[in-house]
Specification:
The chain is an alpha+beta fold and 419 residues long. It has helices at 13-23, 67-77, 92-100, 116-119, 122-129, 141-148, 152-164, 173-176, 192-197, 233-247, 378-386, 404-412; strands at 2-3, 30-33, 39-44, 56-60, 81-86, 107-112, 133-136, 167-171, 181-183, 207-209, 221-224, 252-256, 261-264, 269-273, 282-288, 315-321, 328-331, 338-339, 342-349, 352-358, 375-376, 415-416. The strands form 4 sheets. It has an 11-stranded mixed sheet with strand order 2-3-6-5-7-8-4-13-14-17-18, sandwiched between helices. Strands 1-20-19-16-15-12-11 form a 7-stranded mixed sheet. The protein starts with a strand and ends with a strand.
Amino acid sequence: MRPILPRPAVVPPLALLAATAATAPTPDARAVEGAGGVPSWIVGDPGDAVVAHEPGLVLAGGGGDVDEAMRWMLERAAGGDVVVIRASGGPGYNDYLFDQLGVPVDSVETIVIPDAAAAHDPSVAERILGAEALFIAGGDQTAYVEAWRDTPVEDAINHLVNEKLAVVGGTSAGMMILGGTWYAPATLGVLSEEALADPYHPYMETLGHDDFITVPLLADTVLDTHFGDRDREGRLVAFMARMETDRGVDAFAIACDEFTAVVVDGEGRARVFGEWPAFPDEAFFLRSRCAPPASLPEVCVPGTPLTWDRDDRAVEVHRVPGTVDGDGWFDLTDWTSGDGGTWHAWWVEDGVLLEQPIDGPADCPCPGDLDGSGAVGFEDVVALTAAWGGVGPADLDGDGVVALADLIALLAAWGPCAG
């Protein structure tokens, strides 16, 4: 058992070239403006293509675009229209996506949507709705939330994901807003040591839930980017601890290293692209062990270091190296099946994140089965009421006293234990 140490950032020269391609000006892009003066640039046919596209997700860790993942996205667009949205910057993606990856599409258009006024321009939502592939560029996720939430842009993105079944992706900040739980700090981004020392640190004040972009596979899932490169393991675990404590949900997370991308097909299979083993490119799929109340952190309160132990495996982590062929995968429909990765347990003791390798997910305890019979029933109610006002196994929610909340949790688990 060892503390998780920061890993050195590695910047591959070829990946730097890809990053430059995604940000450099595109001289032959045609600049246009919507009715409200929203800037956009398009290459290709400005008409609306009608094609048999396929659904999918692209989750990219930032630091440079992963060509193989971007080709996968374009292939699923099936020759249709690609739209890139961002809050600032220019059309650097246009030529990269239209000409440089070798996958033909009808058009690529970049739209800059810097504020809510632009997000309410009817022409913006109209152009997004016409896309077979939508990509959200990197930048500042706080700017995206402030400018796009509760606007027609949000509605258009959700329509693409849930109705049109287009392929939708994002890099860096663009990836982070795709989770059912999203982190968008109003000030500075929290560091791992700050989040572990105080899971309610002032820089942790903005954790949104279920009120922005709705991707069914990413419900109760928080996303993070630039992961090992910026030592973000601790803060992601703290995000999950807050989800468990504040909302009582079974928390999940996905994180990507820089120059790593996860692509998810319509069946929920997530493949990981990168340049492993030449570079340490990995994706991380995190799940809390079991569900509340059995999974709740032991100590998650303001001003106090986090403790989330749960028998030294509070969070079960599947690490998948990203390869050029994307042959490592993980199933987001069961959060258990996969190939090419390794399982690890992470837990927190008094603000220190620890880890060890494990064989795989452990069986879950059965909340409320106080007599060990394999089912929650009348005898367990008797045992809980006998312990009323005290502590011990009947304290199902871990708040230090057996009370009404524990009885409610027991009744919610009534019947045979799962598995």
